[in-house]
Amino acid sequence: MGNTTQIEQALERFKAAQEQMMAMNYATSILFWDASTGAPKSGADKRSTSIGTMSGFMYKLLVNETMDADLNLLTNHLDALSDVDRVRVVDTKKEYDKLTKIPMEAYQKYSALTSKASMIWEEAKENADFKLFEPYLEEIVSYLLKFAEYRGYQNHPYNLYIDDFEEGMTIDQLNTFFDTLRARIVPLLEKIQASGKQVATDFLGQAFPVDKQHTVSTDLLKTIGFDLNRGWFKESVHPFTMGLDVNDVRLTTHYYENDLKSALLSSAHEGGHAIYEQNFSEKVQGTPLATGTSNGFHESQSRIYENNFVLSRSFLSYFLLKLKADFPEQLGSIGDLAFYEGMNKVEPSLIRIEADELTYSLHIMIRYEIELGLFDGSIKVSDLPRVWNEKVKAYLGITPKHDGEGVLQDVHWSEGMFGYFPTYALGSAYAAQLMHYMKQDLDVDTCLKNGDFKPLTAWLNDKVHQYGSLVKPVDLMKQITGEAFNATYYCDYLEQKYSELYGLK
């Protein structure tokens, strides 16, 4: 048993090591930001070398005999710690065990494999040649199954990888979620396609000068509640958000001159992530808990701003007046309803990142079913092109012409990121559940009609953002709504919105 002095000394060493790791992570994040927002490509090798060196330092700070002893002591005396320190220790012990249960030699070989696989994937995608990527993906899945045995898991190896991204989530819960989606959203899509209603979107494809798009996107971020005095907004090839500190949150969008919708929605989406990162309480600031509680909850914040708020008819009516002032020639004659319908048009696409709000989660369902099959052995890697095309046809009613726009479209599997995809769909579903309960406390539609996001963002600050990852996702949903995650709210929201938009009975 450790005495009080030993516990205090262990906690002090633990916090000091974490502060050093956070400093290293801050520096590597800055290098990534630079690389993504205009740093010279000629410096890529040096940046990669620096990131690799700092990653090695971070590993040594976490995995060593002193940290092992301190974590064991602190884990055995959690009741002597504050609530923040308790969660910090538990989270770090989990990460420590994850890293140390896998033999170093095996992990190094796996890291080399995924590095090579990512390059091979790029070539395979470009040439629509799955056979080129197939042996690498087979080996990645094999390694992950082996690592699951090393780490230990409950009931199914895939549960381990889901939990890495969405703590507390299991395949039983995901199966219930996707079964509900399959039963309600696939028939809804079929009804929309059979309705014959044509929605015009040509006005969104006119020429919209990029400089004006940037001004409009910046104004949109301010409107929804992002504090630009504590953040930075730039352009990158792929939009992303980076929370370095509550006082240094950075996000990007990408502009296409002939696609106004893309920049507006990516700005709103990344804005939701960024608002989360700006509003952690003082209690968790400066600790590793100053981050989203899970991938799914972080995605819920981007989705609630993008879909439930910005794409609502109430807000688009307000926003169109502002857009007409900036783009009078392009949008001057467009009415509120036509603008709302155009922004929310349902049209199944082959590419996940181009999917509309209704069909997006069907893309995720396809990937989830395949990942589960690969892990339980019911699907072989060699069968993926056929299985992928069959599922796309069944759920979306379309078929890829080649594997480049089919099974090879995402980078995730080449990087070993199994268990990540489901969090995209969970985010949309969490958002709908949060929205249901927000409407019990606030007149959301009136706020959106007036472009007044302060009450909405304040509600999310209070219910979600302030806790960071101090409260875990399962507990946070129950704390906010009084019930567990429930996919019914998401399906109800989609059915109501799109049945009305397409005039379905």
Structural class by helix and strand composition: mainly alpha
Instruction: Going across the biggest sheet, name each strand in turn.
Output: 1-3-2
SSE string: HHHHHHHHHEEEHHHHHHHHHHHH
Q: Give the overall shape, derived from the CA principal axes.
A: globular
Query: Low-confidence parts lasting 5 or more residues at pLDDT below 50?
Result: none
How many extended strands? 3
Gyration radius, to the nearest Å? 23 Å
The main β sheet shows up as: 3 strands, mixed
Q: Which range best describes the helical content: under 10%, 10-25%, 25-40%, 40-55%, 55-70% or over 70%?
A: 55-70%
Kindly state the mean pLDDT as a whole number? 95
Ends apart, CA distance between termini: 68 Å
Strand content: under 5%
Number of helices: 21
What does this structure look like?
The chain has 505 residues and is mainly alpha-helical. Helices cover 65% and strands 3% of the residues. It contains 21 helices and three strands. The protein has helices at residues 4-36, 44-62, 65-75, 83-100, 104-127, 130-151, 157-165, 171-195, 210-224, 260-278, 295-310, 313-326, 328-331, 336-343, 357-376, 384-396, 422-441, 444-449, 454-463, 473-481, 488-501, and strands spanning 231-235, 241-245, 248-253. It has a three-stranded mixed sheet, with helices on both faces. Helix 1 runs antiparallel to helix 2. The longest helix is centred in the N-terminal third of the chain and has 33 residues, at 4-36. InterPro entries: Peptidase_M32_Taq (IPR001333). This is Metal-dependent carboxypeptidase. It comes from Fusibacter tunisiensis.
